[in-house]
Design goal:
The complex is a heterodimer. By secondary structure, chain A is of the alpha/beta class. Chain A has 2 domains: 6-85 and 165-254, 3-Layer(aba) Sandwich (Rossmann fold); 98-162. Chain A is 35% helix and 22% strand. The longest helix of chain A has 16 residues, at 177-192. Chain B is an all-alpha fold. Chain B has one domain (57-272). In chain B, 40% of the residues are buried. The A-B interface holds A 17, 51, 54, 56, 80, 83-84, 88, 90, 94-95, 108-109, 111-113, 115-117, 157-158, 161 and B 46-50, 134, 137-139, 141-142, 144-148, 153, 236.
């Protein structure tokens, strides 16, 4: 069996600047091609967990291994290469450059890492824009674009570097049902192997406050509560062994 | 007596605290400057097609767009300060001092400081707001998540842009101020033919003056850029902190200009007073 793509050994996370709780005693691994759904109440530390996995914050204790390499012993170009292999979509999409066009926003990481002019990057980015349903917006500035589209632009920008792992922080939170359907369908395609990425199945870790939309789609489930992360297993495990917890989580969602 | 001692204690305590804070700030900005220098040098050929246009954009913003205001200030200095001074020199029969006076006051001192202050007021403050807001809205984290070095992408172009802008605008300000003062002399019929007037100034300047003025203006630009970027980017900033960061930046830059000016006075004095 291959080494896990993500491995946390007895890790404790530093408190996030946004005031989320610090998590501790996390031992968890993510294998290639898995789709994990991490749930828990708002501000319980899910975002901090994803940002730590995205190498934005160091672990306060324990060890984080990405692609089999311990992050604490990795630096420079090697760390940059690891970062490029991980796509992190922030809650709400993250910061976009308001004065730039949609195309310039999406092409930026590709241009930076491959030293390309916009015209050259545009050819490579066009299929991603089409897959995300925002090709028609390519020439528009961010001011002319709605909230749901902004989130897709952020997704397209993250996908431009063709990451192996996607970390998604509440991607469909606050969107209307049609948009949620699109996200579920698109992420399912990414997980199954999208033609954009040569049918290579992508590893997904999705954090959400609301488990219900993702219950039929996630492959593995985990919950963040009591300042730690507990892996619950597959959907069958969730509906069998953890049926009570599932009922509680869904009830929490409804509340 | 006891009350007087208490006041003295309080005053020395405040002065000590102020000095400590000052040196801490200098240390932090110095560390930030070293990191920026390291990134700028090691990544000089990285992402050129992204960074070089960003540098051009900063040059246009801090340099070209400020030309009208620099021309206006240069004109004002020439017509309203240097011109009347020339008139006064002529009235007291000290036309021979023209070159030394203008070289010392305008070329070496006023033009670099005024250019740096204009760039700080028009571009530096806007940059703190821009970077501080971007920081508060998560731009730095977003860039890092995309594997883009925020120092390379955000700071290096601004440091180059502000440094080159201050250097270039000093030259323009000097030329416009001197040109306008000559026009003033022409209008009021002072004994300054074009060649004589600029001959006075040229003869008062030594070769090392150009090196010192270049170094001084570069230092003004680079230091203001570092202070601006440090307050905008290097510290955790919330939206409501941005205005306070801007005020702090202006105050610290003005102090830095004063200290740098004093520092550059030392070699100037040594060179002027040599036998």
């Amino acid at each position: 069996m291959d080494a896990p793509l993500i491995q946390l050994d007895e890790a404790a996370l530093a408190p996030s600047p946004t005031g989320e709780m610090a998590l501790r005693d996390i031992s968890w691994s993510v294998q290639r091609g898995e789709w994990w759904v991490v749930t828990g109440p708002p501000s319980c530390g899910k975002s901090a967990l994803l940002q730590t996995l995205g190498v934005l914050h160091p672990v306060a204790q324990g060890e984080l291994r990405l692609f089999g390499r311990p992050i604490s012993a990795t630096m420079g170009d090697e760390l940059a290469a690891i970062r490029r292999g991980i796509g992190l979509l922030f809650e709400g999409g993250g910061h976009l450059f308001e004065h730039s066009t949609v195309l310039e926003n999406v092409a930026l990481p590709l241009r930076y890492h491959h030293d390309l002019w916009l015209e050259d990057a545009a050819e490579q980015v066009q299929p991603i824009l089409e897959a995300c349903g925002i090709a028609a917006l390519a020439g528009q500035t961010l001011r002319q674009v709605g909230r749901a589209q902004r989130r897709r632009i952020a997704l397209a920008r993250t996908l431009a570097l063709r990451p192996e792992i996607m970390l998604l922080d509440n991607p469909a939170g606050g969107l209307d049902p049609a948009q949620v359907r699109w996200w579920r369908g698109f992420l399912s395609q990414l997980h199954a192997g999208h033609p954009l990425f040569d049918q290579r199945p992508m590893t997904l870790v999705l954090a959400t406050d609301d488990l219900r939309p993702w219950l039929p789609f996630g492959q593995q489930f985990a919950v963040v509560r009591d300042q730690t992360l507990t892996a619950l297993g597959s959907r069958e495990d969730l509906q069998g062994r953890h049926a009570d917890l599932l009922a509680q989580l869904l009830a929490d969602d409804i509340r | 007596m006891r009350r007087g001692l208490a006041v003295f204690d309080w005053m020395t305590g405040m002065i000590g605290l102020g000095l400590l804070r000052f040196f801490q700030t200098v240390q932090r900005i110095g560390a930030f400057a070293l990191i920026t220098l390291g990134v700028g040098v090691t990544k000089i050929f990285v992402a050129r097609r992204v960074i070089y246009p960003a540098v051009q954009q900063q040059l246009a913003r801090a340099g070209v767009r400020l030309l009208p205001i620099i021309a206006f200030i240069g004109g004002a200095v020439g017509f309203m300060i240097i011109g009347p001074t020339l008139l006064l020199l002529a009235q007291v029969g000290q036309v021979g001092l023209t070159g030394d006076l203008l070289a010392m006051v305008v070329v070496r001192e006023v033009a670099p400081v005024v250019a740096a202050l204009v760039v700080l007021a028009r571009v530096g403050t806007a940059t703190v707001v821009e970077l501080g807001t971007a920081r508060a809205l998560g731009e730095v984290e977003t860039l890092e998540s995309l594997g883009i070095d925020p120092i390379h992408f955000l700071v290096v172009p601004r440091v180059i842009g502000l440094t080159v802008a201050v250097m270039a605008l000093t030259v323009y300000l000097t030329l416009i101020a001197l040109g306008c003062s000559w026009l003033f002399a022409l209008v009021v019929n002072l004994p300054y033919p074009f060649a004589v007037y600029f001959g006075y100034i040229a003869s008062a300047l030594e070769w090392y003056d150009f090196g010192l003025i270049g170094a001084k203006t570069a230092a003004f630009g680079a230091v203001s850029a570092m202070v601006v970027c440090y307050h905008g980017l290097a510290q955790p900033v919330r939206i409501e902190d941005v205005s306070a960061a801007t005020t702090r930046t202006v105050a610290q830059c003005v102090i830095a200009f004063g200290l740098l000016d004093a520092l550059f006075l030392i070699p100037n004095l040594m060179l002027w007073t040599r036998p």
